[in-house]
Amino acid sequence: MTHRIVIVGGGAGGLELATRLGKTLGKRGTASVMLVDANLTHIWKPLLHEVAAGSLNSSEDELNYVAQAKWNHFEFQLGRMSGLDRQRKRIQLAATYDEAGVELLPARELGYDTLVIAVGSTTNDFGTQGAAQHCLFLDTRKQAERFHQQLLNHYLRAHAGQTDAVEQISVAIVGAGATGVELAAELHNAAHELAAYGLDRIQPENMHITLIEAGPRVLPALPECGFRSTVTGRFG
């Protein structure tokens, strides 16, 4: 019986592993390789800040799992892992529903010989009261698109206003690592582009962006020399 390799999670790690194993073991028939993910497409997580700011069209930059599987000799299964039976070597997938709430795929089980869990990570709010209920996170494409839609809605409401009052928008970004800093820069650019396209009731100088970081400076993971050149190049 062919050895069954099941990879749960189609992020950067899981997708790369499925592709490499498919090109080698899958192509030779040494093993069957299956990738499981709750979404049909993949977009590289470090690009989500561009989706949030509206500078990247996620539909053009996403990768389709079905096509990737076909090209690279592995199988793709749509579903979200809901359980694991290690003794029987089987995983359970929850039922999948479409946008109208109609069941698309029933709950089911998949057998494996080797199981790889590559579900990635999510933002840690450190138990801060109210964060989960009131903050927007950038862990998924849907979250990034939600952020962008809320930003655009704010501009559209201001554009339709009948008063002469100065409109402002404030954005607080918690975390001044690469994603936080890049998001701030992309929002700065977006403010100018939106005004140039006629949504000018909120002028670029009236978008107030605040970076909140627990460390002594932004981009704490970079050495001091790299930090200065990066910030100068991005904001200078």
TrEMBL record:
- Chloroplast among keywords: no
Taxonomically, the superkingdom here is Bacteria
Q: Where is the FAD/NAD(P)-binding domain?
A: 4-223
GO biological process terms, semicolon-separated: aerobic electron transport chain
Q: Which UniProt keywords apply?
A: FAD, Flavoprotein, Oxidoreductase
For this chain, one GO molecular function annotation is: NAD(P)H dehydrogenase (quinone) activity
Pfam assignment, any one: Pyr_redox_2
Extract the InterPro entries matched here.
FAD/NAD-bd_sf (IPR036188), FAD/NAD-binding_dom (IPR023753), NADH-Q_oxidoreductase (IPR051169)
Q: Which Gene3D superfamilies match?
A: 3.50.50.100
- Give the protein name, as stated in the record: NADH dehydrogenase
